[in-house]
Amino acid sequence: EPEVTQTPSHQVTQMGQEVILRCVPISNHLYFYWYRQILGQKVEFLVSFYNNEISEKSEIFDDQFSVERPDGSNFTLKIRSTKLEDSAMYFCATRTGDSGANVLTFGAGSRLTVL
Amino acid sequence: ELKVEQNPLFLSMQEGKNYTIYCNYSTTSDRLYWYRQDPGKSLESLFVLLSNGAVKQEGRLMASLDTKARLSTLHITAAVHDLSATYFCLETSGSRLTFGEGTQLTVNP
Q1: Could you tell me if A11 and A111 are in contact, meaning their C-beta atoms sit under 8 angstroms apart?
Q2: How many helices (H) and strands (E) in chain B?
Q3: Residue B33 and residue B35: Cα distance in Å, rounded?
Q4: Does B105 touch chain A (CB under 8 A)?
Q5: What is the pLDDT along chain B (109 residues), one digit of tens a residue?
Q6: CB of B80 less than 8 A from some CB of A
């Protein structure tokens, strides 16, 4: 079964450092998302991406965050200067199109720990 | 503001019992998802409900959607321990999919 692949699975970083989380979407999927889940809390929407641009972003997705799809395969989330409160599990999710029962498929997640 | 409210947030039940989880949402979306998450794991799709009155069943789980009431339910029949997990509903609005807070289900032997 096709999978959404995320790397790294776990990253530990110092506060103020830049972090890049990577996602390889399922090949025929067109819509890409990043979500985060702080331990024990709800899953929060960060950003959606379609046709090489951001479709929508949440209040959490401030200037410290950016997304891109640099090579047509990887979909990346960059956090420019990490804060302690950025510690969370980050999930990438992708889906095919806008109609029908297109299921949102999640990757296994990247756990980010900011010290 | 998009709001998706689930209740209960915590549910402890005995094996063999039935129970229903409720999901109230705020938009006029006609598409609603249910996902399952095991501790420390990713999110697994359970159901996609596409229209008013939609009902889907898989094993001991059955989901339904009432778009007029903006309510979806996830019914558990004759619960077994393997169903212990956190269950999320998601609603769609534009290109944003918003999660409910999740219902943490524990099924006790």
Answers
A1: yes
A2: 0, 11
A3: 7
A4: no
A5: 668 999 999 999 999 999 999 999 987 776 899 999 998 899 999 999 988 888 999 999 999 999 889 999 999 999 999 999 999 999 887 778 889 999 999 999 8
A6: no
